[in-house]
Design goal:
By secondary structure, the protein is an alpha/beta fold. It contains 8 helices and 7 strands. It is globular and about 40 Å long.
């Protein structure tokens, strides 16, 4: 199944995404980094605006390898009532600890790990993500002015990544400066 995730910064933008039939409304401030976190009050207002009509998600911010901060950020986002909490794996060196850190913190919420195609090859992380109880993986770009996902990865490579994620039972999302013209090919 293919769906559209729309990142929003306010209840007004959430209403626009809802009217445009976005499947998931993502609470995120792209002006504050690749996974810029919104204030909890804003996330809560967006969740109230959506009122269960669509899935909602929220990002935890660009925390790097800070495990305690990651745990706190996961709790803050989850407490706002979103369905999914997205956290970033900014390097393979810190990824193993980051995968373990949020596990079992919010059993009622699904965790989505965001990997960055412009920083490392995330394929080796798929098994540990699935084994770690993470619900899904998104491939994104950390640099929002550099190349898009479709410029960095071939369609074949993207397809292999998505197939492997699905084989392991993970939801899989694609992001990274994608344009409307990329959708049909992806």
């Amino acid at each position: 199944m293919t769906g559209l995730l729309a990142s929003v910064r306010s209840p007004t933008e959430a209403r626009i995404a809802l009217a445009a039939s976005a499947d998931t409304i993502d609470c995120k401030d792209p002006h504050d980094g690749a996974l810029g976190a919104l204030p909890p009050e804003t996330i809560s207002r967006i969740v109230q605006t959506i009122a269960g009509e669509r899935h909602t998600s929220a990002t935890t911010g660009d925390l790097g390898g800070a495990i305690r901060q990651l745990r706190d950020a996961v709790h803050r986002a989850a407490d706002c009532g979103v369905d999914y909490v997205e956290f970033g794996l900014f390097s393979t060196e810190s990824a193993r600890a980051q995968i373990d850190a949020p596990r079992n913190l919010t059993p009622q919420h699904d965790l989505i790990a965001v990997c960055f195609a412009d920083r490392y090859d995330p394929e080796s992380l798929l098994g540990p993500l699935a084994d770690g109880g993470i619900r899904g993986v998104m491939i994104d770009t950390a640099d929002k002015v550099g190349g898009s996902l479709t410029e960095l990865w071939s369609t074949d490579r993207t397809g292999r990544f998505v197939r492997r994620a699905h084989e392991l039972g993970l939801l899989c999302g694609l992001a990274g400066r994608l344009r409307a013209t990329d959708i049909a090919e992806l």
